[in-house]
């Protein structure tokens, strides 16, 4: 099916029909004082040759640093086939087509994606994806408050060990819709949310509890105890998970006492390269009982009049083009292209391949922590099991150390000082299957030199 | 023209109210409303104990064509949501004034009654062009 924009003749014909000379005339009701004629700071157009040169120079200035930063986005090996297939013309559109059923291939792909994500998280139904992990968490909080009809409080408990950017996006998105977020402390020695911290909410009206697994520090939470506490009290459990980790860890659908009610997360680790913060994609799954409160698009499989299998957008009465102001969300789109890449990534790796990626990432991080903590002035901060990230404590401010290492082509981790000043000089590091022992040794040697030079200064 | 039983009271937003012997009221949507919506595929009814204001959205009816809110004709406390509709939303299409009822509530004392009689509702339907 061809999607051809209007030709000049089409435009002229339409304008003639409505009696308007130029498209510009359609905007004449906007007062001239409000019109911006030129954009300050935006240079004149460049031709293809000039822009190509500018961009490749800028890309070169980034260099090819060795990356040990995780903190929500993770460098994994992406098989070459993933983007070779994703960028085929048939898939290379970032959008669910407006006449969705005309694109059966796109819908089938999304259906396969939903099936895989539902299976990975141990839940019954998935949507076609959301913008990113942080907006998925915000949507999950809104959904939990709608779906939890036993609770009137619109109150959501969020551990401080949840990604700080996610917490900020959730309050920016849902805070103006009367939701109240309350912070749960973490154990200073273990870096995880202690179930005992929940005791003060016993008997109070709480709508939902967010559990991030692994949490922002990379530490594994006691998900079974937290989930059981919430479910026994009719509190919805929102699981925020790393998809790679689910190949090894118990899926949220199987957490104690019936599992999570809503599962969300950042899909980037599944075949999407690190790219200055995005575009990435958020995933969301739930139980069938709550499907009508789930935001986003859902693709279903059905039979046509001749009994042939076909795919269709379904349960659209939740969405804003039908329910208007009372829709489940004002976001009724998805990240089609990135979901395409993730689906191909998951099909190429399979459950065993993903488990090998997860196990290798964990092993590399354990190796990294072991090697780095032999450097004088560096120790491990938390004594708790972790997945593929860990917090190190330095004996001096983190930012200058990171700068010196960046000068040597090493992105050495995420400085926690701004978001967690109470942790002191704390550095979050990550190693995935992409790092070799030689890479880790190179990081340790550079760190030892930088620390030694700093002590001498 | 659709059925408008004479013994019920109505709203302009197409709900009906039946006074029950125990002092509670049964509420549903009219035959006209179910016909306009088409085949219903999902119904969400309020939970027992919920307090409703008059005109407050109290239920959602979703058909193959549209999803609509149902507004409570009266202020009061919900005593029961029809438990059969979750598995059989089509009861509303089949028996809008019978087994397709949505909820029962105990009206608040002294709540003002602005409900329409059957003939007034028929007049309203005619005025809307039906």
Task: For this entry, give a set of tags.
heterodimer, A: 457 residues, alpha/beta, Aspartate Aminotransferase, domain 1, Aspartate Aminotransferase, domain 2, 7-stranded mixed sheet, 4-stranded antiparallel sheet, 11 helices, B: 130 residues, alpha+beta, OB fold (Dihydrolipoamide Acetyltransferase, E2P), 6-stranded antiparallel sheet, 3-stranded antiparallel sheet, 3 helices, 9 strands
Give a description of the structure.
The complex is a heterodimer of chains A (457) and B (130). Chain A has helices at 8-18, 48-62, 80-86, 104-121, 133-147, 164-174, 223-232, 320-323, 336-372, 398-407, 437-456, and strands spanning 66-67, 125-126, 155-159, 180-184, 208-213, 236-241, 262-266, 282-286, 299-303, 309-313, 378-380, 389-394, 410-411, 414-415, 426-430. By secondary structure, chain A is α/β, with parallel strands linked by helices. A seven-stranded mixed sheet of chain A has the order 2-8-7-6-5-3-4, with helices on both faces. In chain A, strand 3 (155-159), helix 6 (164-174) and strand 4 (180-184) form a beta-alpha-beta unit. Chain A is globular, with a radius of gyration of 25 Å. The mean pLDDT of chain A is 94. Chain B is of the alpha+beta class. Chain B has a six-stranded antiparallel sheet with strand order 1-2-3-9-8-5. In chain B, a hairpin with a 5-residue loop joins strand 2 (15-19) and strand 3 (25-29). The radius of gyration of chain B is 14 Å and the shape is globular. Chain B starts with 8 loop residues before the first strand and ends with a helix. The mean pLDDT of chain B is 93.
């Amino acid at each position: 099916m061809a999607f051809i924009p209007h030709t000049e003749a089409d435009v002229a014909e339409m304008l003639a029909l409505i009696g308007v000379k130029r498209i510009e005339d359609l905007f004449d009701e906007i007062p001239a004082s409000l019109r911006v004629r030129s954009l300050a700071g935006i240079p004149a157009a460049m031709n293809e040759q000039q822009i190509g040169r500018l961009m490749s120079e800028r890309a070169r200035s980034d260099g090819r640093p060795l990356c040990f930063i995780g903190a929500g986005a993770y460098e994994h090996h992406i098989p070459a086939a993933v983007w070779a297939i994703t960028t085929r013309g048939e898939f290379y559109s970032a959008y669910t087509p407006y006449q969705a059923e005309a694109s059966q291939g796109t819908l089938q792909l999304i259906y396969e994606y939903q099936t895989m994500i539902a299976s990975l998280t141990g839940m019954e139904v998935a949507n076609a994806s959301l913008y990113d992990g942080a907006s998925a968490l915000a949507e999950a909080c809104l959904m939990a408050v709608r779906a939890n009809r036993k609770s009137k409080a619109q109150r959501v408990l969020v551990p401080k060990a949840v990604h700080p950017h996610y917490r900020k996006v959730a309050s920016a998105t849902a805070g103006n819709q009367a939701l109240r977020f309350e912070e749960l402390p973490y154990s200073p020695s273990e870096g995880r949310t202690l179930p005992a911290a929940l005791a003060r909410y016993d008997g109070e009206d709480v709508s939902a509890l967010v559990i991030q697994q692994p949490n922002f520090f990379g530490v594994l939470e006691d998900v079974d105890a937290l989930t059981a506490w919430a479910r026994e009290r009719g509190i919805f459990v929102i699981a925020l998970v790393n998809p790679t980790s689910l190949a090894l860890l118990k899926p949220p659908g199987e957490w104690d006492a019936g599992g999570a009610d809503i599962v969300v997360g950042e899909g980037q680790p599944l075949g999407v390269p690190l790219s200055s913060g995005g575009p990435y994609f958020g995933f969301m799954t739930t139980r069938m009982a709550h499907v009508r409160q789930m935001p986003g698009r859902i693709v279903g499989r059905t039979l046509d009049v001749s009994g042939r299998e076909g795919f269709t957008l379904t349960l659209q009465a939740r969405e804003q083009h039908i329910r208007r102001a009372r829709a489940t969300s004002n976001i009724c789109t998805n990240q089609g292209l990135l979901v395409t890449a993730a689906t191909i990534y998951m099909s190429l790796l399979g459950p065993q391949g993903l488990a090998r990626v997860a196990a290798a990432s964990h092993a590399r991080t354990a190796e990294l922590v072991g090697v780095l903590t032999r450097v004088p002035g560096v120790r491990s901060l938390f004594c708790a099991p972790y997945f593929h990230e860990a917090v190190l404590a330095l004996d001096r401010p983190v930012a200058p150390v990171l700068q010196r290492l960046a000068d040597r082509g090493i992105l050495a981790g995420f400085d926690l000082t701004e978001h967690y000043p109470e942790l002191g000089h704390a550095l979050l590091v990550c190693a995935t299957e992409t790092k070799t022992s030689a890479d880790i040794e190179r990081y340790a040697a550079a760190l030892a030199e930088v620390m030694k030079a700093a002590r001498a200064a | 023209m659709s059925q408008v039983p004479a013994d019920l009271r109505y709203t302009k937003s197409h709900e009906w109210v039946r006074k029950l012997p125990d002092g509670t009221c049964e509420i549903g949507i009219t035959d006209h409303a179910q016909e306009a919506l088409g085949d219903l595929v999902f119904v969400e009814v309020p939970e027992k104990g919920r307090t409703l204001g008059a005109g407050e959205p109290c239920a959602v009816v979703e058909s193959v064509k549209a999803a609509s809110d149902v507004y409570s004709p009266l202020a009061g406390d919900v005593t029961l949501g029809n438990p059969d509709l979750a598995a059989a939303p089509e009861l509303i299409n089949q028996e809008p004034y019978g087994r397709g009822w949505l909820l029962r509530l105990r009206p608040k004392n002294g709540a003002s009654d602005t409900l329409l009689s059957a003939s007034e509702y028929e007049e309203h339907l005619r005025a809307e062009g039906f």
